[in-house]
Specification:
Layout lengths: L5 E5 L4 H11 L6 E5 L5 E5 L7 E5 L6 H17 L4 E6 L18 H12 L3 E5 L14 E4 L2 H10 L5 E5 L5 H11 L3 E8 L6 E7 L6 E9 L3 H12 L4 E9 L5 H7 L4 E5 L13 E4 L2 H13 L13 H9 L1
Parallel strand pairs: 1-4, 4-5, 5-6, 6-7, 8-9, 8-11, 11-12, 12-13, 13-14
Antiparallel strand pairs: 2-3, 9-10
Helix pairs in contact: 1-8, 2-3, 4-5
Length: 328
């Protein structure tokens, strides 16, 4: 089915990303207003015609997480009631994604609950980047396009020409991603065996599987929250003979003083994307932030025109050319 015009709107969580996506698409950001009343109730109003249009609403479920989620739900409802033809929720960071299974007695699966909320609100499809767990796609009864920042991060690291590189998964759950990045960088892979000892971000490393002695290590993770796991892993690698340790992650959550902790750690550099906003106060010298906008913009263009989004995952697709067009 063909819809009308392509329209992109933004919530209040990350308007800078939405503007950059629109720059890539060569069109203006849609007009809407979203604010909070004095009684803390949120309000959204669409300020242009969206009837039968193909609408994309950009809103990571990031700090303030619950406000971002509620605003997104209300935005979707407003678009549905304005008779939008198709509504795609562009959620670069899927908040609550770490609550993806019952790993303790009597706990919720909030990642599934959020999927139900988005669908019930009226989203027709979801576009996101690097879920915490693959099964999150199965939480939805609507089409889901999950992009990955692996190509962006790998391209940046490759340009550094680090010799004797080893790619290291921060835990066994990230081993598949580490193998993929290792293949892109033509580097061997190692894995850290760690245990999360509580619900407050404390971890303990038991072993490192793979040869890291005398090598430059690149730690791979989907997000950096408190920074604790990344720092513990860095010390473990250095203790086992790694020459230097770099880190790459898609989502820079950087809770509390995480940015300063990373700056003061032995890490040489931390490379992330802007799936969530990174305030200037947290842009420490060791932190490099790469734009995810060209990738999201290309995916939006392909969804709108009915072209394959899967081609963005293929090794033959020139992601570098995509970003060069953006820089030009």
């Amino acid at each position: 089915m063909r819809f009308g015009e392509l329209k992109v709107f933004s919530g209040n969580t990350h308007p800078a990303l939405a503007h950059t996506i629109c720059d890539h698409l060569g069109q203006p950001l849609g007009h809407a207003e979203a604010f909070e009343f004095t009684n803390e109730n949120l309000f959204v109003r669409i300020l242009e015609n969206v009837r039968e249009q193909d609408v994309f609403i950009v809103q990571p479920i990031a700090r303030p997480v619950n406000t971002s989620l509620m605003e997104l739900l209300i935005f979707i409802d407003a678009l549905k009631r304005a008779s939008a033809g198709r509504i795609t929720a562009v959620v670069p960071y899927y908040g609550y994604g770490r609550s993806d299974k019952k790993d303790q007695p009597r706990v919720p699966i909030t990642g599934r609950l959020v999927a139900d909320l988005l669908t019930t609100a009226g989203a027709n499809r979801l576009l996101s980047v690097d879920f915490h767990a693959g099964q999150i796609q199965g939480f939805f009864s609507i089409p889901v396009d999950e992009l990955t920042a692996e190509g962006i991060l790998s391209r940046y690291v490759a340009a550094k020409n680090l010799d004797n590189l080893v790619v290291v998964a921060t835990d066994v759950g990230r081993a598949k991603e580490a193998r993929s990045v290792g293949a892109r960088l033509h580097a061997p892979v190692a894995t850290i065996d760690k245990l999360r000892v509580d619900n407050h971000g404390h971890t303990e490393v038991f072993n490192v599987y793979g040869d890291v002695a005398g090598r430059r290590a690149l730690l791979i993770d989907d997000e950096i929250d408190s920074g604790g796991s990344m720092i513990v892993a860095t010390h473990a690698l250095l203790e086992r003979g790694a020459l230097e340790v770099y880190a790459a992650a898609t989502h820079p959550i950087l809770s509390g003083n995480a940015a300063q902790r990373l700056q003061e750690s032995p890490l040489k550099e931390v490379v992330v994307t802007d799936t969530v906003p990174v305030p200037l106060a947290k842009r420490v010298p060791k932190l490099t932030v790469l734009s995810i906008a060209p990738l999201l913009g290309e995916a939006i263009s392909r969804i709108y025109s009915g072209r394959s989004v899967g081609e963005l995952f293929e090794e033959t697709y020139d992601l570098g050319e995509l970003y060069k067009r953006r820089e030009d």
